[in-house]
Amino acid sequence: MTLNGFNPGIAVIVLIAISSFLSPFYLIVFHSNMSPAFGNPRPVYFYDVTPVEGCVVQVETALTDLSNETGLKFIRLPYGAAYLGGGLSYDCSAETTDPVTIGEYQSSTASFLSFNKIILKDTDEETVLHETLHSLGFDHTTNPNSIMYPYHHGSSKVDTDIIDFIKRAYVLNPFAYLNIIPFNVVLFLLILVGLSKRY
Q1: Which one of 1, 122, 160, 189 is separated from 57 by 20 to 30 angstroms, measured CA to CA?
Q2: CB 42 within 8 A of CB 176
Q3: Which region holds residue 13: left if phi is over 0, alpha if psi is between -120 and 50, else beta?
Q4: pLDDT of 1
């Protein structure tokens, strides 16, 4: 249904797409320790976990703790679904690119599709949270007491400034809610709208 040539559904899809492109750069402006990535910030993240013994429980425990501290929500999907949709995919069976690394976040964009994979050789809470925060856009820091310090230091406590920033920019930011739908899904819908206009 359109109103004098205006289609509200298409307008919403376009607004979400614009938000997906601009939101990551908004984060860099307000926090010095960020990297741009499609889909950030958002208050809800879709994720999947390899069905490996112990992996699912460890990842879900860490995400529950992060959710309790920040207000973020994490929704589990069948394995592979979150990866294809541009969400977070935890893999406890793959190898990291560096054999001494116990966790690795891999983000790639191919033909404007976003893929976020977290490889875990160690599923302790510190490693899971560290790599998850990478996927949310946080970079390494030189502070040895920070969860984002690049070396394992035995503490899974998330920095208070990271918690406060996530609450402010991810949970309480009304524009972050436009990013709940994964970027890949938005792009797919835009392509469908474009194809439907041709016929």
Answers
A1: 160
A2: yes
A3: alpha
A4: 45
